[in-house]
Amino acid sequence: MSPPLAPPGWSRWLVPPAALSVHLAIGQAYAWSVFKPPLESALHLDGTQSALPFQLAIVMLGLSAAFGGTLVERNGPRWAMTVALVCFSSGFLISALGAQTKQYWLIVLGYGFVGGIGLGIGYISPVSTLIKWFPDRPGMATGIAIMGFGGGALIASPWSAQMLASFGSDHSGIALAFLVHGLTYAVFMTLGVLLVRVPRPQEPAETGPSAADGVQVSARSAVRTPQFWCLWVVLCANVTAGIGILEKAAPMITDFFADSSTPVSASAAAGFVALLSAANMAGRIGWSSASDRIGRKNIYRLYLGVGALMYLLIALFGDSAKPLFVLCALVILSFYGGGFATVPAYLKDLFGTYQVGAIHGRLLTAWSTAGVLGPLIVNWIADRQEAAGKHGPALYGLSFAIMIGLLVVGFAANELVRPVHARHHVSAPREAADAQRQQPA
Amino acid sequence: MPSDSSPPSLPRSRPRPTGGTPAGLIVLAWLWVAAPLAYGVYELVQKARQLFTG
Fold first, then answer.
1. Topology of the domain comprising A214-424
2. Which of A6, A20, A47, A179 supports an S-S bond with A148, CB 3.0-4.6 Å?
3. Which chain A residues touch B37 with a CB distance below 8 Å?
4. Chain region(s) in chain A for CATH 1.20.1250.20
5. Chain B residue whose CA is closest to A158
6. What per-residue string of b and e applies to A324-340 under the rule 16 or more CB within 10 Å gives b?
7. CB-based contact B51 A6, cutoff 8 Å
8. A12 at the B interface (CB within 8 A)?
9. How far is A304 from A306, CA to CA, in rounded Å?
10. Per-residue pLDDT tens over the stretch A195-212
11. In the predicted model, what is the mean pLDDT of residues A7-17?
12. CATH of region A12-209
């Protein structure tokens, strides 16, 4: 499939909603927990089993983004969005069949494996295209799309819960809910498939520098550079630090103020979790847009340096003032979201637009690693501290110290980022030949 | 070529250039994604209020 070239006069402001229609849909993955309790009671599963589809989906997200990135670059965003639509929606339809027939393995296969491929391809599908349309504001452009991934859970969580309340939480109700999800997301994502266009290579954007003027590095060469691995460490540290709060947000705020005069109720803790989601989403668009003005390296100095400071403040004074605890946690979560959204623009600065989508896909393995590392650190340490008879803030002190250490390592890795050596650059004739090959016949 | 809007020099009565983007399409595309997002944000705000009232 040839990448869909934009006709003359095509507005670039159609590309962000195209990207959002995909990211808002696939962001549903973070709302999987809504289906867990009904699945557990309807199919007699334990908590570990009911988490399997989500875990497999996240693994497949990382794998398909890493290995499918080059295909996405070669075939273009419309092909990628179509694959994402088919896989993500099919995942729900297969899951509907699994729920109706009480075959849980079909739900794992459908939502986890097939749907997970849709997540990975869908996540990277608009990144390269957005950067090419907005060479003057790449941080803002990718921030809009990646904010959508955060926003997807905000939509799906209440929507799925209401659907289950209407259809019932037995296996037929769950099957019907999966069916409606699959069909609705297919229609919703169609907008992206229909609207996405790539700018004509010979006609650079009116504003900002031409993408072809800068450094261009292939995905194969990029993974051999120290810059790629420095950014890998930066992303991994930043995501791990965010997950450190996200993973146990509700019990954490409850534990911190359990012995105070104003203990935190369960509903207030749920409100705290919701506020963290808002900070995560706002950070994606806000900080990423700010990076266009203050620079990518500087914004990561902020995420990692101030992030470590926020953790230190929580560890030292968090239990003495609830507003301070909440404020620091919100800042950390905004940096978590910002880190995700800014990294494509950072990659574009270092490696150019040539195969930035494929490079981004490979870098997302840092996310998968952090997704395992973050919860592991926080949960394991909290369990050990509890077994040792500790309670309240003491359960989290060691976790916070580790998070601060990780952020300092990430800060150092960011400082080591330098422009890519010329030996890794792609020659102009090869890039031109590739661009020519992508032109429709 | 990427463009932020229609060429300003063209009079309103003149036909739009071939391949130009109708403003209605841009509005529709943004509404398509903004409407569900607004619903999600509304539900989030309702829940977040519990931190201060719960």
1. Growth Hormone; Chain: A; (1.20.1250)
2. A20
3. 20, 24, 148, 151, 154-155
4. 12-209, 214-424
5. B43
6. bbbebbbbbbbbbbbbb
7. no
8. yes
9. 6
10. 999 998 755 444 444 444
11. 92
12. 1.20.1250.20
